[in-house]
Design a protein that fits this description.
The protein is mostly helical. Helix content is about 70%, strand content about 0%. The protein is built from 27 helices and 2 strands. Pfam families: TPR_11. Keywords: Membrane, TPR repeat, Transmembrane, Transmembrane helix.
């Protein structure tokens, strides 16, 4: 019996450690092709699965053995405070579902991701010995090298993975190009330190990683990445001066070299012709982000709008001038940097909690590295390792002020914290679980609670993952013109996870497309068409309503609902009234959107309410003077109001913006010049509602989307 118990304890310990090893290896390189979000969504699923498996096996080991060791330190307290900040921010979030789960909001900022990262930190910092910490650092270095090699090959157009979405030079396993640059810049100080202290074959590993890190930095060539390198290498040189007993001073030439190169590129910004074309990334400016932060801080200063909800704040508080840019239809899911984004989403409490955690670990790591003396050879090695971990950790914290993060970068932060805390606080306090003791009762209750909660999360997460697979299959089907298969898979996705407004929003549109398909089908009788269309129309309306009920704070849901009703004008009673109400709700959430105002103008034009049509179209064109759809209907409205000169002016501008349609527009101008109606002698059609751009693509999504087919208004 004792042997069986001992074996079970060993197996549990093995599962605990190797689950962490597998997680450390896979997080930087994992992507999967069967979900619409190929990176962070799958990384989150991996994180939650392996973190809970590791934690469950550790709990089982504790209960069987009747004893456990815990690394008790003050850093844990600050991490718990950060977790509480995210928890409270999620409770008071404007989108609780999105803040908790992430996708289709921002996965890396979700509470679920934070839960997985905290569990990973707890297990790694408490279970790993110094030897196992070293092994995990080496494992992560191998994975980082693979990610960097893959990124370099992508930049040169050498697509070694035969999948459609990977055949893009900007695609990599970390995230955006800037994210890959920050990843390489953050690990650079640690890699240099390990190269100095490593022996035999491992020197080749770290030398290769430095080489490919340098290649990544040159290929990306972003100023904020170079500034991150400057910060990390400067910190490494400063620490090297204080710890001259650990290093041969000649090795300091390496960080000096990287600093000099970084400053060269920052100051002169040269473009190297023989390298692949530089990838451009678009982000919100600091000033625009700051103005949004101020507005949301006035409303929700303590807990913010909720993790992953920056897009809501952007839509509501963006400058009217943004509509005059080429990106006027874009919705930014993140701000200019991780810190500026978090200021709006998790509020002052979340920012202060993060800064306090950062300050605490920097303080205790600095005390360990620069105050305590380590004389033995083993202690010197771990001091060198700790120094590298410390510098890379501080570098990544600094990068949060310069660039946005993702789940790979957040995992890197928690990994550095976990292994550094494991080195700093090497001693574990041991507890015995005696029968009938209060400690045993408390531990058993806590473990049971965590087990039930964790198991529930895994089950719900599995359903959510299955729904996302069905959703991605629907996008593939719709992209290839298989409308029925697309609808079936979307219905499966909505059935498997009925809490995602995105699925119902898309369903409402494809039901409408299917109704148009049935309407044009000459093989069916009129009676069959009528019955089928009635069902599809009803489904479309219900799906749009469910989307707004699930998430009334998303302007895109109201835009699609308005679009559906607008297409059904004349088919159901009060459809134009419902469309107007829907667009007005969208304007409350996105007040500077010329699309909503233009569609209101179109509806009023159809209803022959030309004055209200003019009011809304004027507002739309004030926001975006070159908006073709707005100019077209504005010209028609001026014609109906008898203002021919203004109508000619609008169509003249429209003709210059659309030279391919200038002949047709010229006919309208000729009619107006002759004193006739704008559309006299032309084929007059019912105005077609413009399809809303409701799904701003996240980075690293599979490119399949619902085809942007203009649905014609359905007639009786």
């Amino acid at each position: 019996m004792l042997k069986e118990t001992s074996l079970t304890v060993k197996i549990c310990g093995w599962i605990t450690k190797y689950s962490i090893y597998v997680l450390v290896f896979l997080m930087p390189i994992l992507f999967l092709p069967w979900t619409s979000e190929v990176l962070d969504f799958n990384k989150q699923a991996l994180l939650i699965c392996l973190a809970f498996i590791s934690f469950f096996s550790w709990m089982l080991k504790v209960l069987i053995s009747g004893e456990f060791k815990v690394n008790i330190n003050k850093v844990h307290i600050f991490l718990i405070i950060l977790f509480l900040a995210y928890l409270l921010s999620t409770v008071f979030s404007i989108d609780r579902y999105g803040s908790f789960w992430g996708w289709p909001r921002v996965t890396s900022d979700s509470l679920l991701s934070v839960i997985g990262l905290v569990i990973f930190y707890f297990v790694a910092s408490n279970v790993f010995s110094k030897k196992e910490i070293t092994a995990s650092v080496y494992i992560f270095s191998v994975s980082a090298l693979i990610a960097e090699i893959f990124g370099v090959l992508q930049f040169f157009g050498l697509f070694i993975v035969p999948l459609g979405f990977t055949k893009n030079v900007a695609f990599n396993t970390i995230g955006s190009a800037g994210g890959l640059g920050i990843f390489a810049a953050t690990l650079l100080p640690l890699t240099i330190v390990l190269l100095i202290s490593a022996r035999k074959w491992s020197k080749l590993l770290f030398a290769a990683e430095i080489f490919f890190s340098a290649a990544i930095l040159l290929l990306i060539n972003f100023s904020m990445v170079w500034w991150t390198v400057v910060f990390g290498t400067a910190l490494l040189m400063i620490c090297g001066l204080f710890k001259r007993d650990l290093f041969d001073g000649r090795w300091m030439a390496l960080p000096m070299f990287f600093m000099a190169v970084s400053l060269f590129f920052i100051i002169l910004n040269p473009q190297i012709n023989w390298l692949p074309q530089k990838i451009n990334e678009v982000s919100l400016s600091k000033d625009a982000n700051f103005q949004i932060d101020i507005q949301i801080f006035k409303e929700k200063p303590v807990f913010g709008s909720g993790p992953g909800t920056f897009s809501y704040n952007f839509s509501k508080f963006k400058s009217p001038d943004f509509s005059k840019t080429a990106l006027w239809e874009a919705v930014f899911n993140n701000g200019n940097s991780k810190i500026m984004t978090s200021l709006a989403t998790v509020g002052g409490f979340g920012i202060l909690a993060f800064l306090a955690l950062s300050a605490a670990i920097i303080f205790y790591a600095g005390k360990f590295l620069f105050v305590n003396k380590n004389d033995s050879g083993q202690d010197i090695f771990y001091s060198i390792l700790g120094l590298g971990l410390f510098i890379s950790l501080v570098t990544e914290i600094a990068s949060y002020f310069l660039h946005n993060s993702n789940l790979s970068l957040d995992f890197l932060l928690f990994f550095l914290m976990a292994v550094l805390v494991g080195l700093i606080f090497g001693e574990r306090k041991e507890y015995d679980l005696k029968p009938s003791s209060l400690l045993t009762l408390f531990v058993t209750f806590t473990f049971t609670l965590v087990f039930i909660f964790g198991l529930g999360l895994l089950i719900l997460g599995g359903q959510r993952y299955a729904a996302e697979v069905s959703y991605y299959n629907s996008l593939n089907a719709l992209q290839s013109g298989r409308l029925d298969d697309g609808i079936k898979n979307l219905e499966n996705a909505a059935s498997a996870n009925s809490n995602v407004d995105l699925y119902f929003r898309q369903l409402s549109q494809v039901y409408l497309l299917k109704a148009q398909d049935v309407l044009s089908d000459k093989s069916k009788s009129q009676g069959d068409k009528t019955n089928t269309i009635q069902v599809l129309v009803s489904n479309s309306i219900n799906a749009a309503k469910i989307a707004t009920d699930l998430n009334p704070k998303t302007a895109g849901n109201w835009l699609v609902r308005g679009y559906i009703y607008q297409n059904l004008n004349g088919l159901i009673s009060d459809s134009s009234t419902w469309a107007i109400n829907s667009y007005n709700e969208a304007l409350k959430l996105d007040p500077n959107n010329p699309y909503s105002l233009t569609q209101l103008g179109v509806i009023y034009y159809q209803n022959k309410d030309y004055q209200n049509a003019k009011t809304n179209l004027d507002q739309a064109l004030n926001l975006k003077p070159d908006y073709s759809n707005g100019l077209y209907f504005s010209g028609l409205v001026f014609d109906q109001l008898g203002q021919k000169a203004k109508a000619i002016e609008q169509f003249t501008v429209l003709s210059k913006l659309n030279p391919a349609s200038s002949i047709d527009i010229q006919k309208i101008i000729d009619n107006l010049t002759a004193g006739n109606g704008a559309l006299d002698g032309l084929v007059q059609q019912t105005p077609t509602p413009e399809t809303p751009e409701t799904l701003a693509p996240n980075q690293n999504t599979n490119p399949q989307t619902i085809p942007k087919t203009e649905a014609q208004p359905i007639k009786k």
